[in-house]
Fold this protein.
Amino acid sequence: MKEKAMKQVFGALGLALTATALFWGAPAAAQEEEKVLNIYNWSDYIAEDTLKNFEKETGIKVRYDNFDNNEIVHAKLVAGKTGYDIVVPSSHWAKLQVDGGLLRKIDRNLIPNYKNLDSDVQSQLAKLDPGNQYMVNWLWGYTTVGINVDKVKAALGSTPMPDNAWDLVFKPEYISKLKSCGVSFLDSPTEVVPAALYYLGKPAYSKTASDYTAAGNLLKTIRPHVTLFSSSG
């Protein structure tokens, strides 16, 4: 299985972070008086009782909205006047938002726990955000394949499980059988395309047009067997 190698390639893709959005809503004094914190985050990213506990402990009301892909949050930030104080994009999208002037610098003096952040992760993030001025790492992970072993084995029947788990989603002879139990892909070209490239033995962030043609052809062959595109569970 090439899972370890795939993890090395996709480590940077799974970094979620918090960033302060530029806010053109109510005046600061009014916001302070109302004590409302406006957050835009992925679904299922916090525990069910987190907001309730926070509001009880601080007296600050939280307006908490969810998005299910980076394209949606980016479009809202570009449009402006979102009213959000904190947004949680993936790192590669946050880079675009910093460069576009869509985020505000973070005041570390207001974050006493900043010193407890993983310095190694922050140093990686600094490659996108020099000086760590706009982004704070929160979660990180890898893009990989997750399966229900029993259901997959049942769907494959007499076909043995492959040594490389990525064959399950990138080889038609496997994914065509898995359609019966459901196949979900991330609703994120910036994660799916690099995975396809690497699976084909190409650089995950290739600069060669023909590599992307090959990846596109691969994705076309498996598209009929994908039953869901979702980045939020």
Notes: The CA atoms of residues 92 and 197 lie 18 Å apart.
